[in-house]
Amino acid sequence: MADGDMTSGIGAPVRRREDLRLLTGQGRYGDDLTLPDQAYAVMVRSPHAHAEIVTIDAGEACAMPGVLAMLTGRDMMEDGLRPIPHAIWSGHPAELPLPNTDGSIASGPPHFCMATSIARHVGDIVAVVVAATVAAARDAAERVAISYRPLPSVSHALQAVAANAPLAWNEGKSNICIDSYLGDATATDAAIARASHVVHFETWVQRVAGVPMEPRAAIGEYHAATGKYTLHAGAGGAVRPRNDLAAVLGVPESDVRMVMHDVGGNFGTRGAFNPEFALVVWAARRIGRPVKWTGDRSEAFLGDYQARDLAVTAQLALDAVGNFLALRCDNLVNLGAYPVGFSPLQKGAAIVSSTYHVPFVYVRARGAFTNTAPTRPYRSAGRPEVMYVIERLIDLAARQSGIDRIELRRRNLVPESAMPYRNPLGMVYDSGAYHQVMETALRLGDWTGFPARRAEAAARGKRRGIGVANYVDTATGVPRERAEMTIKPEGVVEVVVGTGSQGQGHETTFAQLINEWLGVPLDSVRLVTGDTDRVIWGGGAHSGRALRLGSIVIHGASFEIIEKATRIASHVLEADPSDIVFADARFTVAGTDRSIGLFEVAAAALTRNDLPEELSGKLDAISDKTIPEASFPYGSHVCEVEVDPETGVVEIVNYTAVDDVGRAVNPMIVHGQVHGGIAQGVGQALWEQIVYDRTTGQMLTGSFMDYAMPRASGLPSYATELSEVPSPTHPLGIRPAGEGGTTPALGVVVNAIVDALSDYGVTHIEMPATSERIWRAIHAASNEGT
Predict the structure, then answer these.
(1) Model confidence over 224-246: pLDDT tens digits?
(2) How far is Cα of residue 90 from the mean position of the Cα atoms in its chain?
(3) Burial letters for 738-747: b for 16+ Cβ neighbours within 10 Å, e otherwise?
(4) How many whole angstroms separate alpha carbon 354 and alpha carbon 333?
(5) By C-alpha distance, which of 692, 601, 506 is closest to 121?
(6) What is the pLDDT of residues 710-744, one digit of tens each?
(7) Which of 186, 197, 516, 757 has a CA positioned 20 to 30 A from the CA of residue 768?
């Protein structure tokens, strides 16, 4: 059997098929869809972080021209809408909910789609206005008169767990939602007690916004004749939002259809069910017309799920020669007003030791409610935060012990001979050549030539620094995936699969897989995704699962097609199936020139009446698999920066990344994903931060005037290289590639900046490492030294 056209199959840097369509305006994003007779919804949002809703007077608003409905939380409750389920467990064993110390499972208050009596954060939806035009709906929304009674609020997790802190939820006894312990406390304490060096580190990994290129939008339909509901919206996948919507409406899943078109970015913050999804569908049922909502950017800052926001206190213990002995962490995540997801806390806690052998680890993992927008998984959920912590700890340990920071890493990286490796908290890494990727990154980043570059920068009055950070990621996610493949006589391979794209290039990479196994041209492959009328099951795109699991089921369906088509071809060619050879989309009788193409076989299956019943009809196959094994991408990044001590301005002058993806289906797309991931990590390290006023809970970064995004001018040309050590837990050796760029970026950038400032005695810079923060650190250190 041939491997297909190697110019287009696995490993080929094929240009993305979808780009021409998307770049020439032929895509269909959320706001592009318009339905006949549709109305428009505008969300009325709370201006308070925490307030009792005393009265809502909609009289003036409802009297305005074009207004069709004004809906409140009371209407929602009277109509029987239920809370959003927000499944806190994806179904993967590595994401089992952390138990509290008393044995209970973390839980929280219900998240209804609208506030009923109390608004819990600025931006919480308190009413919906529906009108014939967007302008009419906006005008009417401004006339809704709401009387609030402000309540005490809390916006930061450390503030929330302090004694006598205001309660984010008055119904609770405290703001702590989850309080769990992992690891061996006694052994960890003993190891720290006998250590020669104990490094202490306290930090806060600040909150960020996902800021996808496309703001969210949704259209809801209700079909009165059938009692069926349809939601058109962009999300992380189609099946879970369909199921969640059915749960909110209290109807069978069979009565709900979810349709996803093109999605302009996700990164996780739009991966969960959003309140607006249910509200537009419910409003459509109420008024008997389709209802559309499109959020603007300011609304996205207030109403989208946010990310990160982890406070950490940690200690790393070492012996006299630099061997790691123990790691102790207290991780406290800010969950926001509603419990949308715990996996950043869970996954981060389980992998705090990273790629290093640390004999004993003990982690306290807590989550606290606050009066802020909810947080949820965001690109490499939880891992960039803990990788940042351990990489900062190692650099601090090098400074304290006098042992070279590279030597510390070499001494403690898990060796390849130890694979599969069970980390101290029970997570089993499938494989990894950690030393190899770090040495490659150091070589590509010219670590040994850095002293000369530092001296040259100093001669120009600049301070140059270099940093390194290693990482391992945890790819899990919903473990079940399904592919339905049909070979059509007109020359089309149709594949129905549940892993919808939000920019990852599935139309290209999935077609490359099929080209590899069936030998058909890329242009013949048609993906069907994002429509639950066609997609029976699919876990969507999250936690690096799309290609990792999609490739397995597509592989299974492809070979089932070949087996079935071989038997059909044997009838057509009047030969024994064992004599049929398949290559380049053709079935040939060995040793002859008699052959038939794959699409001709599909036509024969539909038209011939002399085939066995099981071979007649459509040439199709279904592969539905549950793959519980996790995957562990890993890599090493080197960053070099230059700081102007007069202004504190930092410039990234070099950035080198080596990431192991097991096997790259399309190296060009993988490099692009690494580039994008680095930009997101660097963005958090240097610029991005959601800021809430600690007293009022008001968001102070509600637009791009205040929320600084990474720009091309602030980023260098990256040097990226792929390592391809096949994963033993994947039949094709594939590891995910979409999150590795982000995971080490926080740590490597800050390590480089601190190295640049080492002459001033600066030992740490909090993120975002703005020019002001750097300038203040320089002057504070200089004043201490005088």
Answers:
(1) 999 999 999 998 889 999 999 99
(2) 13
(3) bbbbbbbbbb
(4) 19
(5) 692
(6) 999 999 999 999 999 999 989 899 999 889 899 99
(7) 197
Burial of 224 (0-12, 13-18, 19+ CB in 10 A): exposed
* Angle formed at CA 657 by CA 420 and CA 463, multiple of 5 degrees: 130
SS (H, E, C) 558-609: HHHHHHHHHHHHHHHHCCCHHHEEEECCEEEECCCCCEEEHHHHHHHHHHCC
At residue 92, the pLDDT reads 55
Residue 499 C-beta-side C-alpha neighbours within 13 Å? 30
Torsion of CA 490, 495, 501, 507, to 10 degrees: -40
Residue with tokens 């898990």: 414
Say how far apart CA 779 and CA 762 lie, in whole Å.
Answer: 10
Higher per-residue confidence, 272 vs 762: 762
Q: Residue 498: which of 475, 531, 544 has the closest Cα?
A: 531
Amino acid in position 327: L
- Cα distance between residue 256 and residue 737, in whole Å: 33
The model's pLDDT over 471-518, given as tens digits with 9 standing for 90+, comes to: 999 888 888 899 999 999 999 999 999 988 888 899 999 999 999 999
Which tops the pLDDT comparison, 309 or 503? 309
Distance CA 329, CA 312 (A): 7
In whole angstroms, what is the distance from residue 255 CA to residue 80 CA? 16
Torsional sign, CA 559, 564, 565, 566: positive
Sole residue written with tokens 């097609």: 561
- In this model, does residue 350 exceed pLDDT 70? yes
Q: Which residues neighbour 193 within 8 Å (Cβ) at sequence distance 6 or greater?
A: none
pTM of the model: 0.95
**Encoding tokens for residue 482?**
């399904």
Contact 702, 765 (CB under 8 A): no
Q: Which residue has the tokens 């201490």?
A: 784
Specify whether the backbone of 426 is left (phi greater than 0), alpha (psi in -120 to 50) or beta: left
pLDDT at residue 459 tops 60: yes
Average pLDDT, the chain: 94
How many angstroms from the chain centroid is the CA of residue 608? 48
> Which ranges constitute the DSSP H helices of 619-701?
667-686
DSSP code, position 65: T
CB neighbour class for 311 (10 Å; exposed up to 12, middle 13-18, buried from 19): buried
* Residue 20: closest CA among 485, 468, 523: 523
Predicted confidence (pLDDT) per residue in 384-427, tens digit: 999 999 999 999 999 999 999 999 999 999 999 999 999 999 99
Measured in whole angstroms, the distance separating CA 345 from the mean position of its chain's CA atoms is: 14
Dihedral sign of CA atoms 261, 262, 266, 269 in order: negative
Please tell me the distance from the alpha carbon of residue 43 to that of residue 216, in angstroms, as a whole number. 13
Q: Alpha helix locations (H) across 176-274?
A: 185-193, 239-249
What's the number of CA atoms in the CB half-sphere (13 Å) around residue 660? 28
With 80 as the cut, is the pLDDT of residue 446 above it?
yes
Residues 6+ positions from 525 with CB-CB distance below 8 Å: 492, 493, 495, 507, 510, 511, 514, 515
Between CA 485 and CA 192 the distance in angstroms is 56
> Could you count the other beta carbons within 10 Å of the beta carbon of residue 194?
10
Predicted pLDDT at 93: 54
What pLDDT is recorded for position 94? 52
- Per-residue pLDDT averaged across 565-586, rounded? 95
Cα separation, 465 vs 440, whole angstroms: 19
Task: Give the pLDDT confidence of 591-600 residue by residue, as tens digits.
Answer: 999 999 999 9
